[in-house]
Amino acid sequence: MPLDPVPAPRRVLVVEDDPTINQALCDRFTAEGFAVERAVDGPGAVTAFERTTPDVVVLDLMLPGFDGLEVMRRIQPLRPVPVLVLTARDEEADVVLGLGLGADDYLTKPFRMREVLARVHALLRRVDRARELAGPGTPVLRHDGLELDPRTRRCTVEGTEVHLTPTEFDLLALLGADPGTVVRRERIVAELWGWDESLGSRTLDSHVKAVRAKVGAHRLRTVHGIGYALADETP
Questions:
Q1: What is the rounded CA–CA span in Å between residue 26 and residue 37?
Q2: Contact 12, 54 (CB under 8 A)
Q3: Helices (H), the chain
Q4: 97 near 89, Cβ under 8 Å?
Q5: What does the pLDDT look like over 80-122, one tens digit per residue?
Q6: Nearest to 62 by CA among 21, 23, 33
Q7: Residue pLDDT, tens place only, 21-64
Q8: At what angle do helices 92-101 and 68-75 cross, to 10 degrees?
């Protein structure tokens, strides 16, 4: 009997200008079975992304050439890909801007290597789950001028296409599965990131803020201390 084909290893692009951290990340990902590409500056990151088509990007914000925010501005229109940001900057403006530009999650330095791996594996699991759910018969969500197509991963608002990051799309799809029903914060974090809500409060809030800016603040209803819902209708 023919042997089942061996799946290709997942490809990770590590972008970090500190040589010690870069090497440690590459060594750990290699040991975990990933195919690893690396870059040490902004222009090199974009070039490596175009050349290697990675499955996930681990991206430092502070880079020579141009920073990680500019890297995300350039790569996300090319091909949606999950991005884990590593940053020594803990100011909320930097984190919110990074998440709005296409980062799916972030860790501040110093970090534990096992936490980087856990976050990357969680992002990849979510991508796989989204592909499985977006089969040929998957219905298009239409609600109050908002349209989400899980097969093409496209979003339109009042007929105008809106660019959503992978996490923003999945957040809206989760809330849109039952419009008007409040989805608890811990469930959102568990389904989108795969870890405890207490670790992801700021990440979730930043993504909600970004989605509101893109599709209209009135479309997402907040129930403080509990969760979020897709609003029933435009006021």
A1: 8
A2: yes
A3: 19-31, 42-52, 68-75, 92-101, 113-133, 166-176, 185-192, 197-215
A4: no
A5: 788 999 887 665 667 667 777 778 888 888 889 999 998 899 8
A6: 21
A7: 999 999 999 999 999 999 999 999 999 999 999 999 999 998 99
A8: 20
How many other β-carbons are positioned within 10 Å of the β-carbon of residue 177? 11
How far is 209 from 220, CA to CA, in rounded Å?
Answer: 10
**Three-state SS at 130:** helix
The amino acid at 229: A
**Strand 35-39 to strand 11-15: parallel, antiparallel, or no bridges (unpaired)?**
parallel
3-class DSSP assignment, residue 152:
coil
How many residues would you count in the chain? 235
Q: Give the tokens for residue 38.
A: 């690396």
Instruction: Record the tokens describing residue 159, joined without a space.
Output: 């007929």
Q: How far apart are CA 212 and CA 192, in angstroms?
A: 17
State which amino acid sits at residue 168: E
pTM for the whole thing?
0.76
In this structure, what token pair is assigned to residue 85? 């940001």
16: Cβ contacts below 8 Å, ≥ 6 apart: 22, 25, 38, 40, 58, 60, 86
